[in-house]
Structure formats: structure tokens, C-alpha cells
Amino acid sequence: MELIRKYFPNLSPTQLSQFEQLYDLYFDWNSKINVISRKDIENLYLHHVLHSLSIEQVIHFKAGTTILDVGTGGGFPGVPLAILFPEVQFTLIDSIGKKIKVGSEVSNAIGLKNIVFKHLRIQEEKAKFDFVVSRAVMPLDDLVKLVKKNIKKEGKNAIPNGLICLKGGELQHEILPYKNIADTYEVSDYFKEEFFKTKKVVYVPL
Predict the structure, then answer these.
(1) Host H or E run for residue 186
(2) Which residues, 6 or more positions from 24, have their beta carbon under 8 angstroms from its beta carbon?
């Protein structure tokens, strides 16, 4: 939690409480349904919560923005972002029902009102959103092809509507088809912990 307080000093008491509750809830649910590797659960705030929040360094979503989180697993990046942006509407989807159950139970327990969970594949989601967010679920080109249909034409934010992905490692080859339009942000420019040295946020306007 110190990491969340350090980088987000202006959170409301409600937001702080919601972030604080995440550890015990995920720890408990993870013992029943494995959504985070057992060894990694102790790094929940660094590897999962703060990593999810690095999207905020690229864009501060305006109230009323709609976001689709594809392949959310147990709720990342969607749950931390929904806490950070209570005036933004989030839809979190995953093809594995057990994972959706965990995310849904956690968000209900902390009282999130701006979030909906759906057990489906991206190919089945027909609704349109301002942005799609995702955490390394598949190669960029595959993801762009699948989510293009879900992006609204008219935007309301500081950057055009599109896809925002959390990625790690070497991305030159993956980004090549979009090198003229995509923006890549080094997470280590914002968060100084060693873990973020190879982490990037990739934004593709669609």
C-alpha cells in the first residue's frame, strides 16, 4: 500500500480503503481459484495494482468515458483503474468464468459501482467503448484486429479513442505495423521500482 500512497497522494478515503482491501480479498480468493501465481500474490501492489495504474500516466480518463478490459483475468488492469476513476464506466471480460467470478466478488466486496463483469470472448462482445485496455493477453496485431469493432468513433478525451496495452520486454517487432501511429511509454519514467524497467504502455489510436 505504501507504493499506492507514494504515487497517488490525492486519493479519497474511500479509494484508499478500497485499495487497502484488495490484498486480503485477492489472497483469500487466490487460495480457492488461482488467478495470480502463488509466489506472486505477495507482490500484489507492485506487480498487479501499480502496474495497472501505469495507464493513468498516459491518459487521465474524463468522467463518462467507457472502457473495455479484454482478458481481465482476476480484474487487472480494470479493478484498480475503476477505483482510481469512479466516474468512468468499466466492462471487464474474460473467457474463463472462474477468473471473472474472482474479479466480480472482489469488486462487490469493496463496493465498486462503476464496473460490470462478463464471461465471454472478445469476439462475442458487440458493444462500443471509448478505449480498450489490456494486459499482455496476445500479440498487439491480433488484439487490434479483434477490438477495432469495439471502439467508438467520437472521442471525449485528450487523446483519440483506441487501444491501451500493458506490455513487457522487446516490442519493436510487435509494434512495427503501427509504428507510424502508436505511442510507447516507458513505465520506468513514472514508477522507479526495478520491476518496471522493462514495462511499457502501448497506445494505438483506432
Answers:
(1) strand 183-186
(2) none
Handedness of CA 51, 57, 59, 64 (dihedral sign): positive
Query: In which domain, by residue range, is 104 found?
Result: 2-205
Q: For the whole model, what pTM was predicted?
A: 0.97
How many Å apart are CA 132 and CA 150, to the nearest integer? 8
- Cα 155 to Cα 71, 88, 130, distances in angstroms: 23, 14, 6
Determine contact, residues 112/18, Cβ cutoff 8 Å: yes
State how many domains the chain has: 1
- For residue 83, what is its C-alpha cell? 477505483
Query: 133-170: string of b/e by CB count within 10 Å (b at 16+)?
Result: bbbebeebeebbebbeebbeeebeeeebbbbbbbbeee
Give the separation between CA 28 and CA 6, rounded to whole angstroms. Answer: 26
CB 103 within 8 A of CB 74: yes
Instruction: Give residue-wise pLDDT tens across range 19-41.
Output: 999 999 999 999 999 999 988 99
List the strands of the sheet with 199-205, edge to edge: 115-119, 89-94, 66-70, 131-135, 162-168, 199-205, 183-186
Asked if 69 contacts 116 with a C-beta cutoff of 8 angstroms, the reply is: no
* pLDDT, mean of residues 50-64: 97
8 Å CB contact between 89 and 65: yes
CATH number (domain holding residue 153):
3.40.50.150
